């Protein structure tokens, strides 16, 4: 009998520490499914820094390294250059990647480093208390923006579209944005991640998949409200799909 569902071997069967309605669990499962399907469990290394991403090593049953906050791309660069036949994954949140680690990710992308970044964008600092992140939307409330993000009057700046910024760099080859708000989008997201991982193993330049993910706890919503808010507010500002595809064979596994 053909097995059509089950628990990925690369995913440790333990109770999650993530909050109810958090998207990290779905993302973790997708990654582990793909690593199993690609037969790369013994050659996979995840670099996961400070933030909610730091829990990843509890769930991924393969090698992991925890770099200092924001320095994940530097660690991944060294690992991939030393072990070019391994699958090296940066697993980063928006505060880590787009704030303290901005210089790291920009220069790694510009150099065309051959690892893959999984960029979880929940538009807020999750683990540290709900502060405004570089990706927080205009008007969205946060612990450090109790009246909502105000780019003009309060001088808080605008939300950064990271992929669109990185798309201007010569070293980037595959950039895509997905979401975990619906089953259909989860399926498409898995295709984007598969394309990025396959590009890495083929030795093609820098690849990144951004994932829009709910954070009910710090958004002050229940899980259903958070998914609805993501669809209504985040997706219009952060459009889904392939932002840049310069692979020899175009198109994601969708």
Question: If you had to describe this structure to a student in words, what would you say it looks like?
Answer:
There is one protein chain. The chain has 254 residues and is α/β, with parallel strands linked by helices. The chain has one domain: Thiamin diphosphate (ThDP)-binding fold, Pyr/PP domains (Rossmann fold). The protein has 9 helices and 7 strands; from the N terminus they run αβαβαβααβαβαβααβ. The protein has helices at residues 24-38, 56-59, 72-82, 94-100, 102-111, 162-166, 183-201, 216-219, 223-237, and strands at 44-47, 63-65, 87-93, 116-121, 172-179, 206-212, 241-245. α1 packs across α7 and α4 (94-100) packs across α5 (102-111). It is globular. The model has no long low-confidence stretch (mean pLDDT 93).
